[in-house]
């Protein structure tokens, strides 16, 4: 057994180390730390000279990205081994592959004691610039490496593929997302999800993250908004840690950036995003981006970035149709069997909150919460009362003229028949359907609607609305006609 006792004599540069072995013999070694300090200073001077030459030879951009982040780590004067530390494994490999020979020659030319150099990644705030001499004791020069940035993965546990309701408008995007999350190599990369606000692209990105981590638990997954990407990038540059930020992004196995339309116009951010996408795709890593418009409609975007974003699959998510909105509400209510919501309320919400699926679920949640807290039954009247702000914002400004034109095209009638006095069923029934749609889809009163249909009395409009409601429940063909017209007008 070897017992080591170390004694430091303050106020001097002497370090005395007493070693006692198992037989009781003691040896004492005195080191002169002043000599080690001198070696460290020579290394630092040589490195400064080498950096000046590399900056001139490589250019400011390459130097700043790959050489400037290098820190001196450890030097062994016995064998001439010098270790250089970089912020990440990716950066260490990159510099080793491209600049190892150049750096070795530079060191031999400016500090002949260096025979070999090695590269290592140092995560966290590492104490570096230690000089090893003699039996391997080290003197800490007190230089601190910057902290390597880590991106916390914040995925909503509710946003999974199991909770995503598919329909005609989003089936392509859902299937593409599932392929991207599978263990096997995806057929397309990157995946570009495009839709207006609240149609499910963020849900799909979270679902990809959950599913891919389940398939590949060791995978490095990064999800962030474009806004956070910009903030993190600018902050890293201000802290002189841009290299660490870039390396952390490029070590991802799956990178997902949401709302990339906010990156356009920011030249430095675009440039970094472009290089990150290039690096990941060239190494077979996965990239998913989302935006509220197609790549070609991104104003002010670099053409190189536009080309990268368009090279995979652009999956467009259309506005959810009435059937999908119904399905989403039914799925949500199925998880709460104790909540009593009639079908007419579901139909009312599905028809009126058509702009945004997020608003649709939010409206239902608000209605359920109000009913629970007050004990009131959930009725259509309660929905109109409590969701008036959402409903007024979501109602598309459909005009009676637009309704009349659409109905006439559907039934192949002359537009003048909407105001004529003819009572033949082939004319009167489409006219009644148009009155019904005018009441359902516009805020106009019965008298106002009557005036738009040849000056008819409000009682005629009331009769038409009630009749069509009744026929929809009795006649499948009538119900299908009305559904089709609603879909056309809503789209």
From TrEMBL:
Residues that coordinate or bind ATP: 198, 200-202
InterPro entries in alphabetical order: AAA+_ATPase, Chromosome_initiator_DnaA, Chromosome_initiator_DnaA-like, Chromosome_initiator_DnaA_CS, DnaA_C, DnaA_dom, DnaA_N_dom, DnaA_N_sf
One protein family per Pfam: Bac_DnaA_C
Domain IV, binds dsDNA: annotated segments: 372-491
Region (Domain I, interacts with DnaA modulators): 1-121
Source domain of life: Bacteria
SMART domains: AAA, Bac_DnaA_C
Localization: Cytoplasm
Chromosomal replication initiator DnaA C-terminal domain ranges (all copies): 399-468
Keyword entries, A-Z: ATP-binding, Cytoplasm, DNA replication, DNA-binding, Lipid-binding, Nucleotide-binding
Matches recorded under HAMAP family: DnaA_bact
Family: Belongs to the DnaA family.
Subunit structure: Oligomerizes as a right-handed, spiral filament on DNA at oriC.
Protein name: Chromosomal replication initiator protein DnaA
Record organism: Parasphingorhabdus cellanae
